[in-house]
Amino acid sequence: MKDTTIIHDEILRLKKDRQAIILAHNYQTADIQDIADMTGDSLELSRAAATMEGEIIVFCGVDFMAETAAIISPEKTVLLPARDACCPMAEMITAEELKLVKSRHPEAAVVCYVNTTAEVKAESDICCTSSNAVKVVNSLKEDRIIFVPDRNLGLYTQRFTKKEILPWEGFCIVHDRINPDQVRETRSLHPDAIILAHPECRPEVIDLADHVASTSGIIRYVCESLEKEFIIGTEMGILHRIKKECPTKKCYPLSPAAICTNMKKTDLTKVRNALVTLQPRITVPEEIARRARSAIERMLAV
Ligand code: 13P
Ligand code: SF4
């Protein structure tokens, strides 16, 4: 306990000395969320990385998030305290595989979820996140869309567009495991609760949800709703922010096993060490970054 307080204070001191900003995803552990300058969803964090003042960004999340920050702010030092924190979904498609799909559908536009490697972004026309996928797809002139890598987000987006979506077969190992029986069981335990789900969930789960949104969208919905009880269909880390921002609401997890182990790899010691050593630093070769940047900037402009 005492050690934690010392590390906590050290981080605050180093952060000030280094003029660093700490960004944390909504799935990070409570102590990381509490020490961050900002906690948010992928889109909010990308925007913050592009616009916030500070020479150094400490990205408490997974590798594609820090990579995205490094691509849009190449002049800044982007640190990923847990170097091994990755997103298995982002590993489910390579640039070579995407090139092959593109050659089969040369008339189609490529929309890549931000959960991708820089190389895959570089092969894409535009990026999207869970909060703007529908808007991004509908902003394009092409009628066919190659959507990578999340099959579930692609199928969810298909519900709101006349365009034809060709989804890649990737998935989030945390959300894809949530099944409709869990929704029915949790609903029977809390019949008055509103069911909220993340679009990375399977279509059968989405069908049973009352509202579908990104992580920050879910938090906003709970805080702004007049209802009192909610079933939360996403990763467990989100419950900390909900409890902090709207403590009177009752929230029940749809699946207590929905824990992204990669998001939990960051701890206070690693954040402190990153601020001391300015390592591990994330950089992207300029030739890839240049092409990936255009896909990200196009998304930010939508
Ligand atoms: P959002 O926070 O953008 O909804 O994304 C969820 C996620 O799984 C990030 O990896
Ligand atoms: Fe990747 Fe899923 Fe973890 Fe998000 S929750 S980082 S999509 S594995």
The gross shape turns out to be globular
- The secondary-structure element order is HEHEHEHEHEHEHEHEHEHEHEHEHH
Proportion of residues in extended strands: 15-25%
Q: Give the biggest sheet.
A: 4 strands, parallel
Class derived from helix and strand content:
alpha/beta
User: How are strands sequenced across the largest beta sheet?
Assistant: 2-1-3-4
What percent of the residues sit in helical stretches (DSSP H or I)? 40-55%
Count the strands? Answer: 12
Write the layout of secondary structure elements.
Blueprint: H1 2-18, E1 20-25, H2 30-35, E2 38-40, H3 42-51, E3 56-60, H4 63-72, E4 77-79, H5 95-104, E5 109-113, H6 118-122, E6 126-128, H7 133-138, E7 144-148, H8 151-158, E8 164-167, H9 180-189, E9 194-197, H10 203-208, E10 211-212, H11 215-224, E11 229-233, H12 238-245, E12 250-253, H13 268-277, H14 286-301
Helix pairs in contact: 1-13, 3-4, 4-14, 11-12
The structure holds 1,3-dihydroxyacetonephosphate and iron/sulfur cluster.
